[in-house]
Specification:
Layout (H helix, E strand, L loop, with lengths): L1 H12 L1 H21 L5 H21 L15 H23 L7 H4 L8 H18 L10 H6 L5 H15 L8 H20 L3 H13 L7 H8 L1 H15 L1 H7 L27 H16 L20 H5 L11 H32 L9 H12 L1 H7 L2 H20 L4
Length: 421
């Protein structure tokens, strides 16, 4: 059905109006958000969902014919149009789920009691988190080396350390309201130090989650314009890390060649004369992954159980494992890909809608970080969602599922041994 809709719109409007449609959608939601001074978890999630769809318009504006160096043969107007419509349908469903007020109130959030660890133990746990990322996250950094060199010397348990750190942050994100002023300062310093560390380590996914939680720890305390200005820095930060980790900050400054990354020229072979688009945020890679999925499904490539990779998640096999043998893999797997691949056209509508409802629920849960009486498990889950936000939207939700289960186990142990104070 998605392909029929794509053909219909192509015949009715042509290619160019489809290219600009995500830009119009993004501009409308941004205008409403700025007008109401509401920039929160819902808008940031929407931003991750819609930005890949804007890539073809930017590339077309620059006169670039290809969106990445890989898979040029599938980057046709038909496939690109279908991928953009997939994104638009997902985003429309998400907006309805996240911004439209449901008929019933989320009363269960406000009935939950605050889960509170003893103050000293909480500070010790957070300190352990800082030590873990300082010693065991990465050997290199983007100041003195580039990302390729960092990963070539990667520590064996780097991803595990990252998830343990996420669990520590999520488990301690609801306790700010129970601390005295001096204790709160430690929490804020923890966030600031962690944000700086993840910038240096070029870990964009966790970095975004930390910034979101840091903002929610100040929620309603200052003029909302403060949050609007700060959150708008996120895209700039993504671009900065993308640029700087290509060669390393010190190398870029010494050679005065940071801007070369923005030259959309073919640097890899002399045979390919056409330029390609490559943005530092990585959104172009994500979009071409959508184009690849659309192309494979349109050709009925997947049959039987391969048409529902979700059945293999429990065995550690995901959509990218089926994608790699067939097309060059750019990295990432857009959430819309996963929904459409597993559940078809209806998966986009219902998946986008319930992702919006979930985001709305977690937004109101995180607002309780500052409330001394309420917060509970939903706030911890909201922190898990924030920390895994870019992973959920651009890569795969399995990281959030694992973090969710680990958090649930932690809360169960707290309740069983009565560790709250």
């Amino acid at each position: 059905m998605l392909f029929s809709i794509s053909d219909f719109f192509l015949d009715l409007f042509g290619y160019e109006p489809i290219l600009i449609s995500p830009i119009i959608f993004l501009s409308f939601v941004l205008f409403i958000s700025l007008k109401r001074k509401i920039i929160d978890l819902r808008f940031i999630t929407f931003l991750f969902l819609v930005v890949p769809g804007c890539i073809p318009f930017f590339a077309s504006t620059l006169g670039v014919n290809n969106l990445t160096i890989m898979n040029w043969e599938i980057q046709t107007e038909q496939n690109i149009s279908t991928a953009i419509i997939l994104i638009n349908l997902l985003c429309i469903s998400f907006v309805f789920g996240s911004y439209i007020k449901p008929k019933y109130k989320l009363e269960n959030i406000y009935k939950q009691k605050k889960i509170t660890f003893p103050v000293k133990e909480t500070i010790i746990i957070l300190s352990i988190g800082l030590i873990l990322i300082s010693l065991f996250m990465e050997r290199g950094n983007i100041i003195t080396s580039n990302y390729v060199e960092m990963k070539s010397e990667a520590l064996p348990f780097s991803s595990t350390v990252n998830q343990i750190f996420n669990l520590i942050v999520a488990s301690c994100a609801t306790y700010i309201s129970s601390f005295s002023s001096s204790r709160k300062k430690f929490i804020y310093l923890f966030y600031i130090f962690s944000i700086i560390a993840f910038i240096i380590f070029a870990r964009r996914t966790t970095l975004i989650g930390l910034i979101i939680l840091f903002l929610y720890s100040f929620y309603e305390r200052r003029n909302r314009l403060f949050y609007i200005l700060l959150v708008l820095i996120l895209p700039i930060l993504l671009l900065f890390i993308g640029l700087s980790r290509t060669e390393g900050i010190s190398t870029c400054i010494a050679n005065n060649n940071c801007l070369e990354y923005l030259q959309f020229l073919d640097k890899f072979t002399n045979e390919r004369a056409l330029p390609f688009f490559s943005d530092p945020s990585g959104a172009s890679n994500i979009f071409v992954g959508i184009v690849g999925t659309v192309d494979l499904i349109s050709k009925n490539t997947f049959e039987g159980l391969q048409s529902m990779p979700i059945l293999f998640w429990a065995f550690g096999k995901y959509e990218s494992d089926f994608y790699r043998p067939l097309l060059q893999y750019n990295g990432g797997m857009y959430i819309g890909n996963i929904l459409f691949w597993n559940f078809g056209f209806l998966g986009l509508f219902f998946g986008g809608y319930y992702l919006g409802r979930l985001t709305r629920f977690f937004h109101f849960s995180l607002k309780n970080i500052q409330n001394i009486r309420i917060g509970g498990f939903s706030t911890i889950l909201g922190a898990c969602f924030a920390l895994q936000l870019s992973q959920i939207c651009w890569y795969h939700p399995i990281g959030f599922i694992k973090l969710f289960l680990a958090s649930y186990l932690i809360i169960a142990l707290i309740n069983f041994f009565d560790l709250r104070k």
